[in-house]
Task: structure prediction
Amino acid sequence: MLLTSIVSTIISSCKKEIEKITQQENEPASTSTNRNANPSSRRVYVSNVDELYAAINNADNKGATIVVAPGTYLLNASHPNAGRLELLNNMSLQGQPGHPEAVVIDASQLPNSSFTLPTTPAYPFTRRTGVVRMGDGDNAIEWITLTNDPIHRIRSLIQTDIAATPLAQIKIAHCNLFGSSIGINIINSGAFTSGRIIDAMVEDNEVNGNIVQPFKTGIQIQNTQDVSDAIIRVVFRRNYIHGNGNGLVALNSAFHCNISIKSYDDHIEENGNGISLDGGYIENATRPSINNSISFEAHGTSIRNNAGTPPPFDGDPLGAGGILIRGADILPPTAGPVTINNNKVTASFWGCRIENNAGDFNLRVFGAYSGSASANPIWGNNTAVVSLYGISAQTSAVAINSLPSESAGTNTATINKSN
Result:
């Protein structure tokens, strides 16, 4: 009886598998296409730079993972997109798991013209871009070293400005990024990206030596001017961000945009300035910055020894330090008057070591700040609220409602500490 039961179970299981396979084979074409769009469903292997360009620019490779063999891949402008690597819909780029140093993509021979995008009806202005462009659906870059000669001026190594889908899901993991003006630029850029959502996961990367003018920033997150109702959500885990002019920068120079950041066990250390958060930011005096917000959480993250070397972004008079938070921010050489209202930053730090940074205070918080003597700010209701928990509360901190002062008193800065 027992043997009969076992045989019956095996036969039943086999029938179910046959039915499942038959069902899959008879699925309509649309279902099959969706299944193939999974980045893990098909792998394309490349072993030299010509094969890399051919694979990334082949429309048949949408949804595929491009697996890159060990070696150095020296990019050149004779290939499509002026030599940039532009990931297609749902495409991923993967090096050798466990060895990010094994695959090196070198942008040092690309001319500056490779990083300027031509104008289009949707973008009737010149835009600067990065070596690898992402943002078309679900894109990932993993186990890759991206490098540039720091004397060679480029905007970014990775930039999320391919706004081909209303939702972009981005993963950047186990990568080394060195030698750019911005290492990773997570960005909604231009009116065409209004309403766009970016969800990004940034894990286990080393971002260092990004000291090229003008930004000198490891990771920059931004909704730019002319953008409205856009959202960027980023989760950081275990990244080592060091040796940059600015470690992590987030800003909205837009209308009704939001940035949400969560940081877990990251090390933001030995940069010129560690973290800068600007809820509303004026890029251009003719473009107001209104009703924007940033929410920031850090858990067990270290912000230490950010002491001014390498020098941070030249345009910020507040210069080096650990953490700089401003509900509203106007920087030179902005000419006034400018409008910057109803912007907010809410930040919390849980069990974070915030210490040994430049200046009298490791944490500086402003409800609103103008570093431009020529600007005549039309501002109000800009706020910054920071909460420090556990060991984070031991850091030195200062809160300034408005600089210069605002007569109505609606710009406010608050620091809460709880042991």
Remarks:
- The chain has one domain: 68-418.
- The helical segments are 2-25, 29-36, 49-56.
- The two ends are 67 Å apart (CA to CA).
- Residues 68-418 form one domain.
